């Protein structure tokens, strides 16, 4: 079966928004060292574009979380598959996500890091889906706010497909999926 994809943000629209976010972040962190922590896998394209637009020099780490697997719904349990190697104690951390949906992934990171003692923690996400939130998490930098729709492309997958697409698309599923 071929999935139907409907574009909601083009590569050009995303690039413009990424430049604006990078400007804002560069301004906010011009006087403090920044550690960017990308959340794999979804954030890999957004992070790569974002860091190349910054006018500051961040260090970059990654964690890998997973809760959606092959499904369209979070299973409610966020698994950490890869942790940062270097301690984040005393660091100004900006988490970079492709999407904040229920907020459970970000919540699990903030819980985990509460004991580490960061200097500060902020969240930058390309997409925000506030209608589905199950936690009190708010992102500090948001590319686009979207309705309650399952989206793919620009790093985001459905069952590991479509991460490579240049734009962002709504997947129009058949009723039985
Ligand atoms: O706010 P939440 O409901 O927690 O959803 C957001 C998270 O879910 C997705 O990751 P996923 O578990 O699909 O892993 P992936 O990035 O490897 O695709 C997405 O990339 C975010 O990290
Ligand atoms: O809409 C989405 N698309 C892909 N992955 C996701 N993870 C949470 N929400 C989404
Ligand atoms: Mg996924």
Explain what this protein looks like in three dimensions.
Pfam families: Pribosyltran (PF00156). This protein has a single domain (11-149), classed as Rossmann fold. 21% of the residues lie in helices and 31% in strands. It contains three helices and nine strands. It starts with a strand and ends in a 5-residue tail after the last strand. The model has no long low-confidence stretch (mean pLDDT 94). Strands 4-3-2-5-6-7 form a six-stranded mixed beta sheet, sandwiched between helices. A three-stranded antiparallel beta sheet has the order 1-9-8. Bound molecules: 1-O-pyrophosphono-5-O-phosphono-alpha-D-ribofuranose, hypoxanthine (HPA) and magnesium ion (MG). The site of 1-O-pyrophosphono-5-O-phosphono-alpha-D-ribofuranose (PRP) has 18 residues, from strand 3, strand 5 and helix 3.
**N- to C-terminal separation?**
11 Å
* SSE topology string: EHEHEEEHEEEE
**How much helical structure, as a percent, in the residues?**
10-25%
Q: What is the class in the CATH system? A: Alpha Beta
Structure classification: alpha/beta
Number of strands: 9
Main sheet attributes: strand count, strand direction, barrel closure: 6 strands, mixed
Structural Rg: 16 Å
């Amino acid at each position: 079966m071929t999935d139907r994809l409907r574009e909601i943000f083009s590569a050009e629209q995303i690039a413009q928004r990424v430049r604006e976010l990078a400007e804002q972040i560069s301004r906010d962190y011009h006087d403090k060292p920044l550690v960017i922590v990308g959340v794999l896998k979804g954030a890999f394209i957004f992070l790569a574009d974002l860091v190349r637009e910054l006018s500051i020099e961040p260090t970059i780490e990654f964690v890998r979380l997973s809760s959606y697997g092959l499904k369209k719904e979070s299973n409610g349990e966020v698994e950490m598959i890869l942790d940062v190697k270097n301690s984040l104690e005393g660091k100004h951390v900006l988490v970079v996500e492709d999407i904040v949906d229920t907020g459970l992934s970000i919540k699990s990171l903030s819980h985990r890091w509460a004991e580490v003692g960061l200097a500060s923690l902020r969240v930058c996400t390309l997409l925000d889906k506030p209608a589905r939130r199950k936690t009190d998490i708010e992102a500090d930098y948001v590319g686009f706010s979207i309705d309650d729709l399952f989206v793919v492309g620009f790093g985001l997958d459905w069952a590991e497909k479509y991460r490579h697409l240049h734009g962002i698309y709504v997947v129009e599923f058949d009723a039985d999926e």
